[in-house]
Amino acid sequence: MNIxxxxxxxxxxxxxxPDAPLVAAFDRDPEGVAELLAECELLRARVTESGVALDDxxxxxxxxxxxxxxxxxxxxxxxxxxxxxxxxxGTVIVRNVPGARWQVWPGGGPVVRLASGREIxxxxxxxxxxxxxxxxxxxxxxxxxEQ
Length: 147
What we know:
This protein is mostly helical and 147 residues long. Helix content is 57%, strand content 7%. A hairpin with a 5-residue loop joins strand 1 and strand 2.
């Protein structure tokens, strides 16, 4: 699938060097970085307009899955909503699944590591959800909770 705006966005956000600022910050203050990742300001603003409260619970993921995907009408906002959705998904997993924690890869990408050792690329899941509606965020959470 060729999506020019997404290709351009991905080129601007290719993996950073091993001394990426997020990696260094995570090494110094993992809890602070987790709070930063949980902000998801754009997503929170857009869903508040729809009457959905993001309270970091699995139920809020179900509510997100039910929203009409109006963000798809704005190709410039779409990848940012997807990124925020992925970070929000990761936040819900980390706060509700025992043993789950944030991990920042040497290239700077945040993932969620489950107690089993499995890593979930939540940002990719969020981007897929924002673009196509699949996988549902609540389904990714349910699979993580089973681990």
